[in-house]
C-alpha cells in the first residue's frame, strides 16, 4: 500500500471518530432538552403549581382496616384535577408488621409510606436509608415546604444527623394543645349501649364491683341481640405487642402518673393497674369476656358495633363514629354513650390523652419514589392551608359554599356526614376520608359544631384531656441493643397480656406477671429504661424551649 492510500485511510478514521463524537454530543443535548426546565423558586412559591401533568404515586397506608380508594369521590377527583396527582392507595391484607418487615427486607418501598410514628419500622427505614430526608428534598426542589410546614414538628422529628424523614398527622404542639384542648377533646372513652345501660338502672361502673355487676346484669337481661349472643365487653384488638384498651387507655382512666419526681414511672407494675387487670381476668372467669374479644380484628369489631352487640367498650370514639351514626339512624336509643368507667380507689378524674406533638401517624417518602420533585411538592401542598382546606372541605360549590360568611359544607353534604359516614366517604371524600397528613389544629377553622350522636361522646371527655407530648418517642427502636431489647420485650408483653386475662386465678395471674418481669430483665429492661429516661429528659428540654419562644 502506498503512502497516499495510508493517508486517505487515516483521514477517514479521524472523520469517523469526529462523527461519533458529534453524534454523542447531539444525543446528550437532545436528552438534556427533554429534562424538566428548572425554575428558581422561593419559599413563597407553591412548587406544585410548576407541573400539574398527570402522575400516579403509590401510597402505602400501614393499617389493614384502611379501605378508602382515590379517584371515586368528589374531593380526590378535584385534587387530581388541580395538581395532576393520582394516588394508588395500598393497605396490607393481613398483619401490618409482617408486611412492613417484608418490604423493608426487600429494600424497595412504595413512593409514600404512612404508619404509626412509634413503630419500629420507622427507625429501620431511616437506618437502612430507604427513605429520603424531607429537608434535603425541600432544599433542592421546593423551599415552599419550609414555609408551610410546622417548624416545631420538624424539630421534633429531626434525627441526630440533622435530617427530617417524616411528617406527622394529628400533631399538636404544647402551645396549640392548650389553645385548642376544649375544641379537641380526647378520643379515649368508656362506652355503654344507651338502652341497655338505662334498662339495668344506669349503674356506677367506676369500681370493680360495679363494673362486673353491670356486665353481668346486662348479659342476664339481654342474652342476645337480634338472635346473636351479646358481647358484654369490647376492647381494641389484641396485637403482637398488646392491646391499647388494656394498656394506655386503662392506665389513663386510672389516672396513673407517667413520671414521679422527674423519674419515669413504670405504669405496668402499678398496684391500681394490676388490680384492674385482675378485674378483667375475673370478668373472663365469670363468662363476661367473649372469645371474639381475643381474636377479632377491626373489621369484625366494626360489624359487631354496627349491630349493637357490645354492651360496653373501652374504645376510641372516633374509631366507631360511622357505626354510631348507623345505629342512630336505626334506633336513637341503641347508640353508645360515654360514661364514667374504671377509676382508681380515690375515684380521681381520668387523665385522658389528647393530640401529642408526635401525632398519630408519620408519612415518609421512599428513596425509590418515581419523581422526588413532584413528591415533596405534593406533600407541601397537602400540609399547606390550601391543601388542608381542599382535603377537609372538598371542592367549593360541590361539597361546600360560603354560607353566612363562613366556608362550610352544604346542608345536604353535612346531613350525609351525620347520617352515613361510609356513604359520605364514597361520594364526597371530604372531612377525614384521606387523613394521612391531616392537621387537626388547622382544620378547626372549618369544623362545624359537633351534633348528636357524636356530641355526647366528645363532651364527656372535656376537662379530662391532657398532653403527653413529653413522653412521645422515648422508646428505643431499630437495630441498636436498646432497640432490639425493647422490641423483644414488647413482643413478650404481647404474648403475656392475653395470658393474664385468661388466667384461672389471681395467683396464676401473679405467677405469669412475675415470669414476665423476670424475662424482661433478662432481655435488657434496664438499658431500655435508661434510654427512655434520657429521651424523656431531652424531650422536656425541647418542649420547655419551644414554650419559651
TrEMBL record:
Pfam family, one: SBP_bac_1
InterPro entries in the cross-refs: Bact_solute-bd_prot1 (IPR050490), SBP (IPR006059)
Chain spans, region Disordered: 28-49
Protein's UniProt name: Polysaccharide ABC transporter substrate-binding protein
Lineage, broadest ranks: Bacteria, Bacillati, Bacillota, Bacilli, Bacillales
Amino acid at each position: 500500500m502506498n503512502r497516499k492510500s495510508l493517508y486517505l485511510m487515516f483521514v477517514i478514521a479521524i472523520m469517523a471518530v469526529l462523527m461519533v463524537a458529534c453524534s454523542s454530543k447531539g444525543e446528550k443535548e437532545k436528552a438534556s432538552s427533554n429534562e424538566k426546565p428548572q425554575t428558581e423558586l422561593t419559599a413563597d412559591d407553591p412548587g406544585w403549581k410548576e407541573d400539574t401533568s398527570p402522575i400516579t404515586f403509590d401510597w402505602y397506608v400501614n393499617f389493614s382496616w384502611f379501605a378508602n380508594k382515590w379517584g371515586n369521590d368528589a374531593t380526590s377527583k378535584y385534587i387530581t384535577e388541580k395538581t395532576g396527582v393520582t394516588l394508588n392507595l395500598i393497605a396490607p391484607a393481613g398483619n401490618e408488621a409482617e408486611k412492613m418487615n417484608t418490604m423493608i427486607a426487600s429494600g424497595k418501598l412504595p413512593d409514600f409510606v404512612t404508619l404509626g410514628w412509634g413503630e419500629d419500622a420507622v427507625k429501620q427505614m431511616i437506618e437502612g436509608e430507604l427513605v429520603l430526608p424531607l429537608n434535603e428534598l425541600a432544599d433542592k426542589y421546593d423551599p415552599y415546604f419550609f414555609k408551610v410546614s410546622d417548624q416545631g414538628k420538624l424539630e421534633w422529628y429531626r434525627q441526630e444527623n440533622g435530617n427530617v424523614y417524616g411528617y406527622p398527622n394529628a400533631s399538636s404542639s404544647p402551645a396549640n394543645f392548650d389553645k385548642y384542648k376544649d375544641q379537641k377533646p380526647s378520643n379515649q372513652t368508656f362506652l355503654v349501649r344507651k338502652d341497655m345501660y338505662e334498662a339495668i338502672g344506669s349503674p356506677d361502673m367506676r369500681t370493680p364491683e360495679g363494673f362486673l355487676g353491670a356486665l353481668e346484669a346486662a348479659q342476664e337481661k339481654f342474652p342476645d341481640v337480634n338472635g346473636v349472643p351479646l358481647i358484654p365487653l369490647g376492647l381494641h384488638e389484641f396485637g403482637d405487642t398488646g392491646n391499647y384498651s388494656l394498656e394506655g387507655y386503662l392506665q389513663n382512666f386510672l389516672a396513673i402518673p407517667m413520671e414521679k419526681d422527674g423519674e419515669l414511672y413504670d405504669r405496668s407494675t402499678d398496684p391500681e393497674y394490676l388490680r384492674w387487670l385482675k378485674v378483667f381476668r375475673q370478668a373472663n372467669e365469670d363468662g363476661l369476656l367473649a372469645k371474639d374479644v381475643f381474636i377479632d380484628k377491626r373489621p369484625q369489631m366494626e360489624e359487631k358495633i354496627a349491630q349493637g352487640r357490645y354492651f360496653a367498650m373501652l374504645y376510641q370514639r372516633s374509631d366507631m363514629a360511622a357505626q354510631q351514626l348507623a345505629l342512630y339512624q336505626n334506633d336513637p336509643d341503641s347508640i353508645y354513650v360515654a360514661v364514667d368507667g374504671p377509676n382508681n380507689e380515690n375515684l380521681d378524674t381520668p387523665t385522658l390523652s389528647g393530640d401529642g406533638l408526635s401525632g398519630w401517624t408519620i408519612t415518609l417518602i421512599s428513596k425509590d419514589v418515581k419523581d422526588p420533585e413532584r413528591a415533596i411538592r405534593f406533600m407541601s401542598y397537602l400540609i399547606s392551608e390550601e391543601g388542608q382546606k381542599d382535603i377537609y372541605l372538598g371542592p367549593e360549590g360541590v361539597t361546600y359554599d360560603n354560607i353566612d360568611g363562613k366556608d362550610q359544607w352544604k346542608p345536604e353534604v353535612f346531613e350525609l356526614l351525620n347520617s352515613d359516614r361510609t356513604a359520605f366517604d364514597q361520594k364526597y371524600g371530604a372531612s377525614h376520608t384521606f387523613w394521612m397528613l391531616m392537621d387537626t389544629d388547622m382544620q378547626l377553622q372549618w369544623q362545624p359544631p359537633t351534633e348528636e350522636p357524636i356530641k355526647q361522646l366528645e363532651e364527656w371527655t372535656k376537662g379530662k384531656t391532657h398532653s403527653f407530648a413529653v413522653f412521645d418517642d422515648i422508646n428505643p427502636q431499630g437495630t441498636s441493643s436498646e432497640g432490639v431489647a425493647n422490641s423483644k420485650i414488647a413482643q413478650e408483653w404481647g404474648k403475656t397480656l392475653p395470658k393474664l386475662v385468661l388466667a384461672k386465678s389471681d395467683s396464676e395471674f401473679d405467677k405469669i406477671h412475675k415470669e414476665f418481669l423476670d424475662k424482661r430483665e433478662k432481655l435488657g429492661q434496664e438499658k431500655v429504661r435508661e434510654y427512655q429516661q434520657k429521651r424523656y429528659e431531652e424531650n422536656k428540654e425541647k418542649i420547655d424551649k419551644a414554650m419559651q419562644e
